Amino acid sequence: MEKRPNKLRTISELLNEGKTLLEQKGIPNAELDVQLIMADALNCNRLKLIMRFHETIDLHIEKEYSRKLVQRLARIPVDYILGKKEFMGFDFMLEDTVLIPRPETEILVEEAVKLIHNQNISTVMEIGVGSGNIAVSIAKLSNCKHVTGIDVSKEAVRIAKENARINKVREKVTFDCIDLFSPEFSNLPKYDLIVSNPPYIAEREFNDLQPEIFYEPRQALDGGVDGLIFYEYIAATAKEHLNKNGYIVLEIGYNQLKSVKRIFENNKYCIYKVIEDYSGYHRVLVVRWVK
């Protein structure tokens, strides 16, 4: 950005200049991103920021804004730059060792909370916790007794525990570093509900993704050759960890409904419900184990 050390500049000027720079690089959501970066530099929310557009800002604030704008120009996701993400109305700490929570995953949480309420569910397990956004949100929004979360990544478990502390649900959530494919997983008890947003991007699809995706941990995204390996393993093994009439709530890729349904039907689950996302894609699948 252009240096003007002897003149304080307005928030509006800096935002417009930053938006233009991002747009020139072909970065989507440029206006939103510069507002988020500026709001973070000023330690205020976006609504207050908009009300302050005419104000000038100190040089040290401009410098901080410019530093983070340069990171965004390098295609680093804005959520990693800020080190945080809002999900289900709650704040979550983020590092680049965990997946960035997506808005469509809120549909999974909403469905899980409905099931817990309507089916009198007490115990929940999440497979692949990442930042802990799903497990923590379920603990915050439902009356279940306990949520257990597992992840193969020690860093993910550390961050999830911190997010449980931030959101004041440490007494209701347990996070452990356990590999889904390990014997340790088979030793886990039974639960009323299992939830998961597993890696589901097929290997061939990575070449078509935005540059930002490559800053996220590959193991949280890569679903194998066809994107289905985790669904196959969950379908085969989760039944050993479900109480009778227990449920599984899964996020799925936009084009995976037919394949994932077949996997679970072949493993003798009943298809309970399919939910679309905000774009009309099949995004959440609910199955039931009745044996």
What does this structure look like?
By secondary structure, this protein is α/β, with parallel strands linked by helices. It is about 40% helix and about 20% strand. The strands form 2 sheets. A 7-stranded mixed sheet has the order 5-4-3-6-7-9-8, with helices on both faces. It has a two-stranded antiparallel ribbon with strand order 1-2. β4 (about 145-150), α8 and β5 (about 175) form a beta-alpha-beta unit. The longest helix is centred in the first third of the chain and has 15 residues, at about 60-75. It is elongated and about 70 Å long. The mean pLDDT is about 95.
Secondary structure topology:
Blueprint: H1 11-24, H2 30-42, H3 46-51, H4 59-73, H5 78-82, E1 84-87, E2 90-93, H6 105-118, E3 123-127, H7 133-141, E4 146-151, H8 154-166, E5 173-177, H9 183-186, E6 191-196, H10 229-237, E7 242-251, H11 257-266, E8 270-276, E9 282-289
Percent of residues in β-strands: 15-25%
Unreliable segments of 5+ consecutive residues: none
Radius of gyration: 21 Å
Q: Look at the structure and give the mean pLDDT.
A: 96
CATH architecture of the largest domain: 3-Layer(aba) Sandwich
Cross-sheet strand order for the largest sheet: 5-4-3-6-7-9-8
Relevant CATH superfamily of the largest domain:
Vaccinia Virus protein VP39
Structural class category: alpha/beta
Number of strands: 9
Straight-line distance between termini: 63 Å
Q: Please give the share of residues in helix.
A: 25-40%
The total number of structural domains is 2
Fold-level CATH name of the largest domain: Rossmann fold
Shape verdict:
elongated
Biggest sheet record = 7 strands, mixed
Secondary-structure element sequence?
A: HHHHHEEHEHEHEHEHEHEE
Count of alpha/pi helices = 11
Name of the CATH class of the largest domain: Alpha Beta
